[in-house]
């Protein structure tokens, strides 16, 4: 009888577990995973993921709290203990000195930061960090993360400022099942997590289904069933790596099918969250919108510049195109490399061909003979954190000569110029990469306003052999060169097979797109990828909905709501409300836009973009007096802000205050010398006040720096013609014709200028 009830109990337990396996998955915690996965847990426990964030204890705090002192621009911070508590005495949000208790450690190597609890559920990251490197490497010391900046209380970058708030800046990548739980009305957080660190489910997704399925002891499941896991990170193809003896490089026998890169990208990328609750296992672009190769983040040739992590550069690489994934080099649990030194690269690159002086041209075993030093150069972030560029590029010092980008050669040979390195590489490899085109020249042309920028960018966009992130970047740059030719490239991008290209296409839409292009863009509102849909909705927010069919209107409403949700995820940031206000304004909802701008200023009274846009809204409402006060307030906050100076200059023109307007427009041009628009407007103002020679000089200088700027060329033609310099006007008109060969009015103008030039020449001869 007892045995009978045991069988019944087992059946009931099996039934419950089987039912739970069908429920919506939830997080179970790393302790549950460890019960069955002891080996993986042991590897993980020694990893940086396991130390991403921890309670501050004797075991976790690495910094010296034995009455250590750090001075930064006159402020002396002191680190000390009070029993089990770790304390720092430093300047708080009001500038006064007081003791703060360390709540959590943040990271572990090569530096460790510290989090301090504040009212409203905030945790703030202290601006002084511990250098956890060995002493012989310069470590075991306190250092300030902004050593050259004086950051008074109230500054965004002060450790108590909003740019150091853990809940927004860092939390979702350092803890598992993070829920920010921000309350806009109260401006407070009730942030929660399942595991305080980066544990199993941060990568594999919520594990309740997997646990229930395993506990049910059902048989007949295969990898195809994914064992109840939300994120299946194993490759689903049958490909394998085989060495090609001719090239000395391994190749996959079948294209890779794996979600691994998307899973890692969630945190190893510069991106914006666009899904309310991102869950591991989904497509990356359904939850995040990554940064493209934009100035300040990447150099024109795609090398890392700002703090962008690994994803963006890896997308550029031939490795990624060949099917390499993160775990080919890194153990996914310990995060350690699979091998040290050149042995790691030898997994796929035959040492007999590549780990020899004939290839690297350095002393074997030397620093220069290490593969990563040439193909993965480093850049230092946060003062001590050296990170490698993951684009796995061949050094191109010839690009350094041509467009000014860095190169690995002169990063080591700091006493040598780029042309020396370019000559050496050409000598070693006469048929090397320097003989082939590189996308960096096209992106540089777009950044600098070269005369052939439009053509170069259009060709790059249409070249499906180039990485998608590169082609998407070209689309962003193409927005500055609107024409029928560029419209054709945008139209093709709308139908591109890669969502990273399609997501960039809406951002290339000109201010006044043709009806045909707008209609083509409408199809992206129903794209299967969220990042594409919301960018399409953003670009079409000002579209007259009457031009859409009822079905298209419904599709737009759905995508637009996704966009609003994506922006509202960051409701704790003034930038989100600025973006929402801009969307409201495009939809003719001025009152709603004003409310969003006011909310942005409630969160950050010194948020200059909100002041500027609210002033512009007042302009539209004929309230320039109120706008003037806001712009002057913004200038008091950021005296060197060229955008604000320019806006105030235009406002003063509208108020007929020309002397002061001229001063503001001049300062805008001086503060942003690379901004062709500001130089153009200032030149027009100069010309209108009788300073034509000064205006022409400024326009000529601007034209040399921005030869593709059509407004500058038109101004040069106009002023030259006004002064009777028909030859000069004709010369610039011919330059403009190169940029707009289909412009029939321009051709007629050139004919008239040629007639006048000839007539003027005849008069001189007589």
N- to C-terminal distance? 129 Å
User: How would the global form be characterised?
Assistant: globular
Average pLDDT metric? 93
Rg over alpha carbons: 30 Å
| Secondary-structure class | alpha+beta
Largest sheet: 9 strands, antiparallel
Number of strands: 17
Low-confidence stretches: 1-19
Give the amount of beta strand, in percent: 5-15%
**Secondary structure: helix percent:** 40-55%
Q: What is the overall number of helices?
A: 37
Core attributes:
766 residues; alpha+beta; nine-stranded antiparallel sheet; 17 strands; 47% helix; disordered N terminus
Describe the structure.
The chain is an alpha+beta fold. Among the domains are: 53-201, no CATH class; 241-396, no CATH class; 438-561, Leucine-rich Repeat Variant (Alpha Horseshoe), CATH 1.25.10.10; 673-766, Tetratricopeptide repeat domain (Serine Threonine Protein Phosphatase 5, Tetratricopeptide repeat), CATH 1.25.40.10. The strands form five sheets. Strands 1, 2, 3, 4, 5, 6, 7, 8 and 9 form a nine-stranded antiparallel sheet that branches. Strands 10-11 form a two-stranded antiparallel ribbon. A two-stranded antiparallel sheet has the order 12-13. Helix 1 packs antiparallel against helix 7. The longest helix is centred in the C-terminal third of the chain and has 22 residues, at 744-765. The model is unreliable at 1-19 (pLDDT under 50).
